[in-house]
Amino acid sequence: MIVQASPGSPAARAGLRGVNLQGDMLGDVIVEANGKPVRRLSDLTDAIESIGVGKSVELTVLRAGQRRKVQTEVVDISRS
User: Fold this and answer.
1) Rounded mean pLDDT of 41-61?
2) Which residues pair with 58 in a beta bridge?
3) C-beta separation of 53 from 78 below 8 A
4) Is 58 helix (H, G, I), strand (E, B) or coil?
5) Which domains, ranges and CATH numbers included, belong to the chain?
6) Cβ pair 37, 31 in contact under 8 A
7) Long-range Cβ contact pairs of 2-11 (< 8 A, separation 24 or more)
8) How far is CA 75 from the centre of its chain?
9) Rounded mean pLDDT of 55-63?
10) What is the pTM of this model?
11) For the stretch 45-74, what's the b/e string if a residue is b when 16 or more beta carbons lie within 10 angstroms of its beta carbon?
12) Whole-number Å distance between alpha carbons of 80 and 77
């Protein structure tokens, strides 16, 4: 589950949504990365690491029971 998409980040620009405490809504849940299932955090980090910084990843997320695909850029957040 996405807790927060930092303002101005590739995730936020792609429309990914984090938890909304005021609206009592859950964030998007990432279920696939480039067509491969994401069942735990390590599945996602492994997929992103194999794609590499500066490249694009297609994420499939669940939002309000609906699946949607989102393209976003992989960035190194440790350099921010």
Assistant:
1) 95
2) 71
3) no
4) strand
5) 10-79 (2.30.42.10)
6) yes
7) 2/27, 2/28, 2/29, 2/30, 2/61, 3/27, 9/75, 10/72, 10/73, 10/74, 10/75, 11/72
8) 12
9) 96
10) 0.85
11) eebbeebeeeeebebbbebeeeeeebebeb
12) 5
pLDDT band at residue 80 under the 50/70/90 scheme? low
Q: Residue 63 carries which side chain, given as an amino acid letter?
A: R
pLDDT at 22: 80
Specify whether the CB–CB gap between 12 and 70 falls below 8 A: no
Q: What letter represents residue 3's amino acid? A: V
34: left (phi over 0), alpha (psi -120 to 50) or beta: left
State how far the Cα of 33 lies from the Cα of 71, in Å rounded to an integer.
10
Please report the pLDDT score of residue 25 as a whole number: 80
Please give the residue that has the higher pLDDT: either 25 or 57: 57
